[in-house]
Each structure stands twice: as C-alpha cells, then as structure tokens.
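DM between two lab members

TW: hey, do you still have the Transcriptional regulator entry open?
JB: yeah, one sec
JB: this one, 300 aa:
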Amino acid sequence: MTASESGRSSPPTQRVVTVLDLLAAHPQRRYGLSELSRHTGLSKPTCLGIVATLTNAGYLVRDAQDKTYRLGPMLISLGHSAQESLRVNPAAREALRALSHQYDTTAALSAVVDDRITLLEMVAPPGVRPGVQVGQSYPFAPPVGLMFVLWDPAALQAWLARPPTIPLRTDGARLDKVVAQCRASGHLVELLTPAGRRLYALMAGMSSTLPDELRALLGEMISDIGERVYLPEEDSTRGRRHDVGVISAPVFDHHGRQAMVVSLQIGRSLTDTDITRHAKGLMTTAAALSAQLGGRAPVS
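TW: and the structure you got?
JB:
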C-alpha cells in the first residue's frame, strides 16, 4: 500500500525527494544553496540540512571552491541495485548499445512496475537527447500499454478490463487482428503521429487518475486501442514509406510470460523493407535478453 493509499506521507522525506529530483532533472548543472532554496521552495536551513546529510552519505558531491552540489557516486550504486531488483542484467545495456549503433536510433528496455510502465534502460546514438529519461513512468491502462500484454493472453484480458485512461472506442475485430498478427510476426510497429507525440508528453509522470478536461483532450487525440499499429496487409500502396514511431518486441521470463519490452524509437519514415530489417535485429536482441533472464518464448 502506498503512502497516498494509506493517507500517510512524510513531509521531511518529500523534501529530500524534491532536492534529488531537481538535481536529477539537470545532471550537468551544479547548484548553490541559494539556488536550491529558490528552485525547490525550501528554506536555506532546510536545504542545508538535506544536502549536508546526502553529501556525507555520498549521494551528493560538494565542490569546496564554489560551494555547489551535484549528484554523487553512491547514486550509481543505488541505480545498479534498483536495476538488479527489476531483473535488468548489466549486459542488457551492452545489448541495447549494439542495437542502437546498428540502426542509429535509440534503443530502450521497459516493463510494467507497480502498475506503471517504467523505462528501465535506454541507449541513444551519440549527440541524441531523447525526450524521456530512465525511470520515467506512464499510467498502465488502455489505450496505453498494449505492447506489454500482446504476447500474454491472460495479461491482455486483465489489461483490457482496467478502467481506461481516456474514453475509448474499441474495434474488437481489428484488435483481434492486431494481436494475432503481432504474435505471429514477433513484433509490433506503431506509427508516428502528432497526436501520439502529444499523448506521451502529456501522460509522462502523471498518475493513473487524470483530470476530466485532460481526459477529454486525450480522447480526441487517440480513441481506439491499437489504432496506430501498422499492419502490412492494410497497406494498399505497397512500397511507400511509413512514419514509424516505435518498433517493439517482447522479452520473456522462465515461465514463458512477457516480462519486458525492448524497443527501437524510430521517429522517421521507413519502407516495408526497412521495417523488416529493423524488426529482425530487434527480435534477435529480445531473444538475447530473454536468455539473460533464463526465459523462453511461450509455446503456441
């Protein structure tokens, strides 16, 4: 049970989180005590107590000359421990790095953690700054999250039974087609649309309960589960290019259940041949990540 569910919270702890969140959002910057106080809304004495304690523990580093603070080395160890607890093998980053280099695009690994879609690891090409960060999360409810349940029939039905994040019109016949074809091909291709970009930007970090006005806005942007999934058989003009947002493939655990999703963040137009080539490399990586978990694809 979370603090919000139990009605209890810890204001002192929240103040520590506020300081860490600020520094994490700007990892290249160093903040003096006055800046920390101004940006967090906390008093200087409160900030001083927090940063002094975090610095002594190694979670922050203090520059003795300009008296500024930045993230410290103990957070690296903490992050690695968190990834290990979420079954992210250190070798996963190297697998994503190879995938990113092969296709010159961002490769990511994500999973559903505590009923939220969470980005566990990500590697971007040199010079590219993705619009998301490791640890960022999104509500896991229709229409968001289909790729995390596509290859698990029980999980798919449980997800469909969740109260939707936004009002939906669901075409059951097409959804069945999407599920069948994605399971057969081993991957999912999601088309890139302006509405899709706005959807994820708006939902990033939000709770599962959205204000009514925002729900209505999102409902205008996307209203059908799987409507942005690209199915080749629906393309009447073979050979043309398609604006592809994401190509995803499942990672399975030792029970043969879908545990994670590995994705290529495309963000550009591809031909069918390009899509096939990207998907092939992606599925090879997904199989390698499944093997790291001792996983296996489910038997049809």
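TW: got it. The domain at 11-77 is CATH 1.10.10.10 (Arc Repressor Mutant, subunit A). Confidence is low (pLDDT under 50) at residues 1-6, 203-208.
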